[in-house]
């Protein structure tokens, strides 16, 4: 998408303005379907930092995610948590992951997240 969808930017801005991490969203980006809940960037960064800090091999990367980002202008990225990439009837990873998606790369989206099963 050459120009980000203004309505999606507004949704992301509303998530950023609060500290809620409960907004369910599904997007198509680069041909992949990603479904999960949006979180404000600061919340997302904190959680990623915690996960990295808990890893003996990746703890050095943790500090990259604790640096505050300038909050100027409209959001440019969506920050998903408890998210999965849908492939057939399976969500990857099973436990949900942390994804950052550029809004300009979103070609389609819908409110809500998709359920899936391993059957």
Structural notes for this entry:
- The structure is a single chain.
- The chain is of the alpha+beta class.
- The protein is built from two helices and five strands, in the order αββαβββ.
- The protein has helices spanning 6-17, 41-53; strands at 23-29, 32-38, 77-87, 90-102, 106-111.
- A five-stranded antiparallel sheet has the order 4-3-2-1-5.
- A hairpin with a 2-residue loop joins strand 3 and strand 4 (90-102).
Brief synopsis:
By secondary structure, this protein is of the alpha+beta class. It has helices spanning 6-17, 41-53, and strands at 23-29, 32-38, 77-87, 90-102, 106-111.
Question: Which range does the strand content fall in?
Answer: 35-45%
Largest sheet: 5 strands, antiparallel
Q: Kindly report how far apart the N and C termini lie.
A: 34 Å
Order of helices and strands: HEEHEEE
The helical percent reads 10-25%
Q: What integer is the average pLDDT?
A: 86
Number of strands: 5
The number of distinct helices, counting runs of at least 4 residues, comes to: 2
Overall body shape: globular
Low-confidence stretches: none
Radius of gyration: 15 Å
- Strand order within the widest beta sheet: 4-3-2-1-5
Instruction: Give the structural class.
Output: alpha+beta
């Amino acid at each position: 998408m050459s120009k980000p969808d203004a309505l999606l930017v507004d949704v992301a801005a509303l998530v950023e303005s609060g500290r809620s991490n409960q907004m369910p969203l599904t997007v198509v980006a680069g041909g992949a379907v990603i479904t999960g809940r949006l979180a404000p960037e600061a919340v997302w960064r904190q959680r990623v930092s915690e996960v990295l800090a808990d890893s003996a091999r990746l703890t050095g990367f943790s500090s990259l995610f604790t640096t505050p980002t300038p909050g100027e202008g409209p959001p440019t990225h969506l920050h998903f948590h408890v998210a999965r990439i849908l492939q057939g009837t399976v969500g990857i990873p099973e436990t949900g992951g942390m994804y950052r998606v550029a809004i300009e790369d979103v070609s389609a989206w819908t409110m809500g997240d998709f359920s899936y099963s391993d059957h």
